[in-house]
TrEMBL record:
It comes from Zea mays. Pfam families: mTERF (PF02536). SMART domains: Mterf. GO terms for biological process: DNA-templated transcription termination. Belongs to the mTERF family. This is mTERF transcription factor. PANTHER family: CGI-12 PROTEIN-RELATED (PTHR13068), OS06G0224400 PROTEIN (PTHR13068:SF136). Coiled coil: none annotated.
Amino acid sequence: MNNLRKRMISLLLRAPGSPYVPCPHFFPLFYPHRLLSAIKCVATKPFAVEDYLVATCGLTQAQALKASKHVSHLKDPSKADAVVAFLSNLGLSSAEITDVVTRDPKVLCSDVERSLTARVAELTDLGFSRPEIVRLLIVGMNHFRHSSLRLNLEFWISVFGSLDELIRALRINAALLSTRIEEVCKPNLELLQECGINVSDISNSFMSRVLTRDPKSLQEALARLHEFRIQPGSQPFFRGLYTFAILGSGKITKSIQLFEKLGWSKDHIVSAVKRDPTILGFTEERVRRNMEFLIRVVGLEVPYIARRPALINYSIDRRLLPRNCLINFLRAKGLFNDEASFLSVAAIGDEKFRRRYVHPYEEDFPGLAAAFASSCAGEHQWERLYKMTGENKES
């Protein structure tokens, strides 16, 4: 044993081509049992999920931090390595694998044989080519691994008429690949068709999300539409059906109560919702803030806003405030005598607004265009502009 110890020390401390010089104070570091312990420590270094996501899957550090929360139970890379190898062999590029893992980190926990390979085999039996399978995997994400994939695919292709049309719907609602057909999808599809909504109206719109909702939610949404006297087949009807079905009856009731607290009568609410049902889907903060701005700053009244609910939909910081400041500035200069309503000022497109209210005055006020652009970007420079032109800003 002593000879072995001396031999190991000699090999470890002797540099090639140089004479052996004993260093007694180093000897304790290289007792055989300590050397073996050090090797074991290195070999059993804990698996770092974040490092793996960055080094192997190509995620950024920020993406890896977010994704790691979903796969924190992975204790070694074996299962994840098998998944990455499977995706690569299937034909996904490195960028596509990164995209898949970023949006669905749990794919790394898949059982390759029982889940991924089985699904690919099913699709191959159905006649799907390898590129088509890759498209479905990328757009379907975690729903691709569901055991009902084959059944759902057969049903939805028969409904939409082609894989391309189905892919369009899946980009909006991939849950179509895993939601129960008989209990959920078929009843919802029948309800929509009874309302005059065709398949062509569903595949390329957010209406596809309604198909996987609880049928009870869809029935309640239809009842709400009738309550607000919204005509079937109209654009508000489509928007309202989607909004009410997705949010649910409880959220819609709370939104109605919020408008009542803000001084809206039932007639005002009905008038607004008939024009734009999506206002009932806005957050309380957005509704309160926009109402306060429109009433206190712009000087509008509830009846005016109720007839023009789009005003609640516009961003204050990037649209309403910059345009209101600009119009006030032009009025202060005696350059704006247009009797246009505030809605027309707010609703006009960006380019057209600049051509009408900014470009004609750039020569007289060189800072005007820059101030307006910075204001739309959230950087308010109206005080500087007013000082440049020698007048105080009107509140």
